[in-house]
Structure formats: structure tokens, C-alpha cells
């Protein structure tokens, strides 16, 4: 039985979701003539970086009850970037800088992009055997 086919279908589906998320974010800028929602795209790119950088300081022993403050700081930075990715369009819409539809499109694009990152990281995580 071919085991690579389900992975190919999953990767293609995730790439379509990622492309639609970026498309919605760019269209929220282009359709309404205001490029401020494009700042959210930078949070998409920066959000996984703290976990990738500080994630290697996590203990690989599943029975260890030791928490690394460096890894916790990386998780804090990631959560701060994700929350700002959702909060920035809301603040811009509240201030009247962007329209409500641009905010909705930007947040929907953010949900698709962050959801794709989360699904990809959970599906293709290496299982450690002891």
C-alpha cells in the first residue's frame, strides 16, 4: 500500500488553505485601497519563529518535570504575535483606519494561515519512541 499518497493530498490541501489565507489578507488591502492590514502578514511570518528558535531548549524526556524558562519565553512571544495578528485588524477598524469588511477578511485570512500552521505542525510532528 502506498503511504505517500495521503501525505501528498494533505500537503496539497494545506497549501490551498495557506494560499487562500494570504489571498484574503492581500485582498483586504487591495479591494479597499488601504494597505494597513498588510501588517498582519508580517505576524504570520514571525509567529512560528520563536517556537522554532527556542523550542530546542525543551527537555526530550517525557517523564522530566523540568520547565525551561527559555522555551516558555518562546511560547510567550509566539502567543503575543498570534494575538496581535488577530487584534491589529480589530484596532484598525475601531479607529476607522480600515473598513469592517477589510477587518473581517484579514481575520479570516489569519484564521486560515494560523490553522494551516497548526495542522501542519501536528500532522507532521516526529513521534519519539522510547
In short:
The protein contains five helices and no strands. It is mainly alpha-helical and 130 residues long.
Explain how this protein is built.
The protein is an all-alpha fold. It is 71% helix and 0% strand. The longest helix has 27 residues. The protein is flat, with a radius of gyration of 18 Å.
Topology summary:
Elements: H1 4-30, H2 39-46, H3 48-54, H4 69-94, H5 100-123
Q: Roughly what fraction of the amino acids lie in strands? A: under 5%
Q: How many H/I helices?
A: 5
Structural class: mainly alpha
Distance between the termini: 27 Å
Q: Low-confidence segments, ≥5 residues, pLDDT <50?
A: none
Strand element count: 0
Report on the biggest sheet. Answer: none
Mean model confidence by pLDDT: 85
Give the SSE order as H and E letters.
Answer: HHHHH
Principal-axis shape equals flat
Query: C-alpha Rg, in Å?
Result: 18 Å
- The helicity comes to over 70%
Task: Give descriptors for this structure.
mainly alpha
